[in-house]
Write a structure and sequence with these properties.
By secondary structure, this protein is of the alpha/beta class. Helices cover 45% and strands 15% of the residues.
């Protein structure tokens, strides 16, 4: 991916306190990439700060969520001829110094997921949310026939085939940009890999959904994927 046209896509909703610093760090580590901030209906000065920091800004008229914002980013990338899209959070949770490993790993697959769950990680998720994430991980890994240890990670990259797919078919519901998009990619036959990354807790602002809502969604998503996997297994057995 060394000579590729690369787009860093940042969905942002009321991230005025952090967006400028995130853009500056990305430019410091990868001055060769283009940066698109999808301003997801912010009511603060997120768009103005992002533009002043040197990013291209796509303004959505109202808040549609991360999935809808990333759908916009993939459509933009497809129309502009980008070969690589890397999703980075606007709240400073992701480490721009690790962009290289997400980009370079696309030489061998279509999607690279940055996983926060590895031996050197200090990121910790406990309780029902962690159990749901483990179930999602197990189910998606079986579907992909490859390890996907952090299916809800938003720090990930997409190559040409994934950009083409997601520009016209990308889930907009909450966490669909992570879990749902991986399921779509697997069903389409795209190859998924993962690399270890550092992930921080947000310093400013607030998440779009609270912990309880996230846990309930993860549980529902886990059950839906398990049902899908069981159906696929039964169908395969009937064919054989």
């Amino acid at each position: 991916m060394a000579a590729s046209k690369i787009l860093i896509a940042i969905p942002a909703w009321n991230e005025v306190q952090s967006i400028g610093g995130v853009i500056e760090e990305i430019k410091r580590h990868r001055p060769d990439v283009d940066i698109l901030v999808v301003n997801d209906g912010s009511t603060d000065a997120t768009a103005e700060v992002a533009q002043a920091a040197g990013a291209t800004v796509a303004n959505l008229p109202f808040n549609v969520g991360v999935g809808g914002a990333m759908r916009t980013a993939f459509l933009y990338a497809q129309r502009a001829g980008y070969q690589c899209v890397v999703q980075v959070d606007a709240d400073g949770q992701h480490e721009p110094a690790e962009l290289d490993r997400l980009i370079e790993s696309l030489d061998f697959c279509d999607i690279v997921v940055g996983t926060r769950f590895h031996p050197d990680s200090t990121y910790n998720v406990r309780g029902p949310r962690r159990w749901a994430m483990k179930l999602l991980s197990h189910t998606l890994s079986r579907m992909a026939k490859a390890p996907i240890s952090d299916p809800t990670s938003g720090f990930r990259s997409a190559g040409p085939r994934a950009i083409q797919l997601f520009s016209g078919n990308y889930p907009a519901e909450y966490l669909g940009d992570t879990v749902g998009s991986l399921a779509i990619a697997i069903r389409t036959g795209l190859k998924i890999d993962e690399v270890p990354v550092t992930m921080y807790f947000r310093e400013y602002g607030r998440p779009s959904k609270n912990a309880l809502w996230s846990t309930l969604y993860l549980g529902r998503a886990s059950l839906a994927l398990v049902v899908q996997l069981v159906r696929r297994t039964r169908k395969s057995d009937e064919i054989n």
